[in-house]
Design goal:
The chain has about 260 residues and is an alpha+beta fold. The protein has helices at about 20-25, 40-45, 60-70, 85-90, 100, 105, 130-145, 150-160, and strands spanning about 5, 30-35, 50-55, 75-80, 110-120, 120-125, 125-130, 165-170, 170-175, 180-185, 205-210, 215-220, 220-225, 230-235, 235-240, 245-260. About 25% of the residues lie in helices and about 35% in strands. Strands 1, 2, 3, 4, 5, 6, 8, 9, 13 and 16 form a ten-stranded mixed beta sheet that branches. Strands 12-11-10-7-14-15 form a six-stranded antiparallel beta sheet, with helices on one face. Helix 2 runs parallel beside helix 3 (about 60-70) and helix 7 packs antiparallel against helix 8. It starts with a strand and ends with a strand. Mean pLDDT is about 90; it is low at about 135-160.
Length: about 260
């Protein structure tokens, strides 16, 4: 079975290096490509004829390549190579061992997991709207300008921005500063805060800070705003979505290979 691993060298730091990871993948017959500045991972994946597509990077790097795999009914491999690696954690991988995750290419077992859609765009983890999305947008703008206090300024936005979004959810007016649409349910209690027990529930969960109810679950939601658009963070990556925006889940749509226990 032919396989391609794309590696984002800018996702994280530490060991192994991108070149060391690529060399290890080649020992098991996986074609590799370390992304260069300006290269688009989804375009490279789409141009490949590989039956298995892998992405080594952080959460924001994964979904474009996963979408290519889904479109061709190929398999997807996640290699944790970023800072937080939330999807890898929820998939049951060791977030600190990308070399171990490579075994999925060689002797992996297949799982079927859900994916979410935000107006058609695939997400694996979640989409945030409101204050957290604004933080992500600000952080990205500061990073591009290479300002030293980008993180401090971003957190200042989070702490001082108190204006509600002025949105409706499925036609209901909701006063909230933060909406999170999650692909499957997130744990809300310690010590599992922010983790998902399942990736195959077949439901989205919508969390809205300070609203009543604070959580909804279903297969589809429509979020509207008088402004006509909202800043969003899709799997942690900044975007702007036009409203009304529709979110839906595709149960069991993605084939994922994971190392056998």
């Amino acid at each position: 079975m032919s396989a391609l691993l794309l590696i984002n060298p800018r996702s994280g730091t530490g060991s192994p290096t991108p070149d060391e990871l690529a060399a290890e993948a080649r020992t098991i017959g996986v074609q590799t490509h370390v992304l260069r500045e300006g290269e688009d991972a989804a375009e490279l994946a789409g141009a490949s004829s590989a039956e298995v597509l892998g992405m080594a990077g952080g959460d924001g790097s994964l979904s474009p390549v996963a979408e290519v795999a889904l479109e061709r009914d190929g398999a997807f491999v996640c290699i944790p190579f970023g800072t937080r690696n939330h999807f890898a954690r929820d998939l049951g991988l060791d977030r600190d061992d990308p070399i171990e995750a490579l075994r999925a290419f060689d002797t992996g077992s297949e799982r079927r997991i859900d994916v979410g859609r935000a107006d058609g765009r695939l997400f694996l983890n979640n989409v945030s709207l409101g204050v957290y999305a604004r933080l992500v947008h600000h952080r990205e703008a500061q990073r591009r300008r290479r300002e030293a206090f980008a993180r401090i300024r971003a957190w200042a936005i989070l702490l001082t921005h108190r204006q509600p979004l002025g949105i409706t959810i499925d036609g209901d007016e909701v006063e909230t500063r933060l909406v999170l649409v999650a692909n499957n349910a997130y744990g809300l209690d310690l010590p599992s805060l922010g983790e998902r027990e399942r990736l195959d529930e077949g439901k989205l969960h919508l969390y809205s800070l300070g609203a009543d109810p604070p959580e909804r679950s279903g297969e589809r939601f429509v979020v509207d705003a008088a402004a006509g658009r909202l800043e969003a963070a899709i799997d942690g990556e900044p975007d702007v979505l036009e409203t009304p925006m529709e979110f839906w889940v595709e149960p069991g749509a993605l084939r994922v290979l994971v190392p056998q226990a």
